[in-house]
Amino acid sequence: MHFRTFLKTGVEVLHLGTQHSNGNAWPLEHWKANSGRWRLFTPGIDAYLNQRLVERSFGTSIENFILLLEIADFAAWGIGVAFAGPTGYSSYKPKTRELRSVGQIDWLDVQMLTPTQQLQAYRTATVSAIQRASEATRKPKDFEFAKFAQAVDEALRGAKVSQVSRSAFEANEVQPFAAADGFAAH
Hints:
This protein has 7 helices and 4 strands; from the N terminus they run βααβαββαααα. By secondary structure, it is α/β, with parallel strands linked by helices. It has one domain. Strands 1-2-4-3 form a 4-stranded mixed sheet. A hairpin with a 4-residue loop joins β3 (90-93) and β4 (98-106).
């Protein structure tokens, strides 16, 4: 089983370490006035989870799970404008044996949290996304959603921020999965 996060954020979400990036939408004054930051490195979380799930099987229908993680001030954006809305979205692609599901984190709830607390919010959103996919009308027949949700929950519950950080990722303490490892290129 391979796990991947596709991160989609509102422009209001400030990512730790990107205040001097050329692609930054906000002037430096905005960064100084708003102290809230998204402090997690999702490729590190993905690599951490993949190391713990690589030998696990949850059925033959799914090889890849993609968490479409939305982080935004949803009240400010409105429903259906740029984000999935409170009911979420899930998609099953039998040809590629891929399952996608939206998990949402409200920026106003997490912007001032510690990295450990943000990781807990990530875990909650991920488990909710898996459960949402299990309730979809079009879903894989041979996939153990509850077992997968439990495995992800246990792995993230036991994770330390230092294990999923950018520095752990760059030090090769956690290995990323690539297209050659089974992810369908989309």
